[in-house]
Amino acid sequence: MMKLSDVVKKTGAKVLAGKARLTAEVTGGYTGDMLSDVLAHAQKGALWLTVQAHPNIIAVAVMKGLAGILLVNGKTADPETLAKAEQEKVALLSTPLNAFQAVLKLQDVEKKK
Amino acid sequence: MKVYRADLHIHTCLSPCADLDMSPRKIVRRAADLGLDILGISDHNTCDNVPALRGAAKGTALIVLGGMEICSREEVHLLGYFDADTDLFAVQAALHRKLQDVGESSFRDDQVIANAEDEVLGFHEKLLIGAVDLSLQEIVDLVHRYHGLAVASHADREGFGILGQLGFIPPDLPLDGVELRDPSSPLRGSLRLPLLTSSDAHHLEDMGRGVTRFTLGAPSVTEIGRALRREGGRGTEF
């Protein structure tokens, strides 16, 4: 079982928002920067890897019941996104790795299912 | 010819990301306080609060232009403005047939349809933050087919801006203009398309942060198009 706190360790991520959610289980993953694609295909409980950092990503995470969002390439979120993440209790992480490198670090999550 | 101070990118309480305080009467009052002559109403993928804004502005000097901020398949935001409400609503109907549907939207209650007296008429059922399954080119063509103006939203903003999403502006895309959030954006010197600035206000206090001064024969969408093309002494300044 992988938790968000494991994601933080494995990808060297910073926790930008939603610290209380770090014990949540991650049951899969999805990588994509088109919100419509994520809305259509991401599974509940997935960690979402993206470069998008605008407030709408929080809405997508809530609607899909995602485990959390991992911003890649060291992206930071704008203040409005951070506020929304805290308000909606969505874990928002940021890793210096790119999406491909981060997925390689997290591949166990799909293997152990 | 007269100079009009215009803020052409205003969200109302119908946009799920906008403040509930963005109600028709409050928007009109704020516009008067700011000395604005023209407002462009541009909610995400809908124009259902345009009639209420027109009603609230009745009897004042404020001109309300009807529009929408459309989210394309590429997740680029594009502003469409129309003189005739029949055109505006026909375009909305065409877009809504292609708007992404994810079943029940948890944001319904944040999508308030109002009347001119700031009363709640209802809540919009569609996922207004969603994307329309049409390409940017198809949407520009649709806007033009209904005699509208097509303006790329906040090109200097990464999220949902044409440059952030596509990397460059396709040279054959017949845009009528490009909106800049920041009037002193470095893009100002490099883009070859007509430029304007607007506030993209989601809160009352943000209104008027971006104002373009248009020299027009009359305050209309058609005239703004001519000003963007600098026809017959018309023009823009910001």
CATH topology of chain A: Udp-n-acetylmuramoylalanyl-d-glutamate--2,6- Diaminopimelate Ligase, Chain: A, domain 1
**Backbone shape of chain B:** globular
The total count of helices of chain A amounts to 6
Could you describe the largest sheet of chain A, including whether it forms a barrel? 5 strands, mixed
Biggest β-sheet description of chain B: 9 strands, mixed
Q: Compute the number of helices of chain B.
A: 6
Order of helices and strands of chain B: EHEHEEHEEHEHEEEHE
Number of domains of chain A: 1
**What best-fitting shape of chain A do the alpha-carbon axes yield?**
globular
Rg result of chain B: 16 Å
Q: Averaging pLDDT over every residue of chain B, what do you get? A: 95
Number of strands of chain B: 11
Unreliable stretches of chain A, pLDDT < 50, 5 or more residues? none
* Beta-strand segment tally of chain A: 7
Helix fraction of chain A, binned, reads 25-40%
| Percentage of residues in strands of chain A | 15-25%
CATH class of chain A: Alpha Beta
Strand content of chain B: 15-25%
The CATH superfamily of chain A is identified as: HprK N-terminal domain-like
Percent helix of chain B, as a range, is 10-25%
Which structural class do you get from the secondary structure elements of chain A?
alpha/beta
SSE map:
The complex is a heterodimer of chains A (113) and B (238).
Chain A: E1 2-3, H1 4-11, E2 14-17, E3 25-26, E4 28-31, H2 35-41, E5 46-50, H3 56-64, E6 68-71, H4 79-88, E7 92-94, H5 99-105, H6 108-111
Parallel strand pairs in A: 4-5, 5-6, 6-7
Antiparallel strand pairs in A: 1-3, 2-7
Chain B: E1 2-10, H1 24-33, E2 38-44, H2 50-57, E3 63-71, E4 77-82, H3 85-96, E5 112-114, E6 120-123, H4 136-145, E7 149-152, H5 162-166, E8 177-180, E9 195-197, E10 212-216, H6 221-228, E11 235-237
Parallel strand pairs in B: 1-2, 2-3, 7-8, 8-9
Antiparallel strand pairs in B: 1-10, 3-4, 4-7, 5-6, 10-11
Helix pairs in contact in B: 1-2
